[in-house]
Amino acid sequence: ALGATEKSQVTYHLDYAEQVRYETNRIVPPALAGTLQCTPTEIRGGEYCAHVGGLEHYQRYGYKGIKDANHHNVLDTLSNDPGWIRIPYQHNRLTIQSGHLPHLSTPIESIGQDCRNNDDVAANDSVNNNNKENEHTTTTARKRVI
Hints:
This protein is an alpha+beta fold. It is built from 3 helices and 10 strands. The chain has helices at 18-24, 54-61, 138-145, and strands at residues 2-4, 10-13, 32-37, 43-45, 48-51, 84-87, 93-98, 103-105, 108-111, 118-124. The longest helix is centred in the middle third of the chain and has 8 residues, at 54-61.
């Protein structure tokens, strides 16, 4: 589960098997990726956005959107790039996408008063990754910290 608070967001990224990248220096995205939005209160912001440009778009912007040579913030492209699919936050909404699509969530503007933070579940299939860990696993998160 990914917890979030007001003003937090999930930055632009592509899901892939971290262990495969560590072992082979190759990025292998999952066949499918998705989220389940679980917070039962009103949330403003927090849109789930995926770009249909896939790996080509990711190659331009890079991990966390920091690669663009013109220093464009990938969030600034949401309103004028027709390649973005934008899905507003809604309790109990399940999103499923092709695993090769880079994605993000927009900053959370506000969370209802009866909720201190929201929890969403992110999941990937591992068919293309030989059951290797993806970037959302606890083990992989620990490896980044160490």
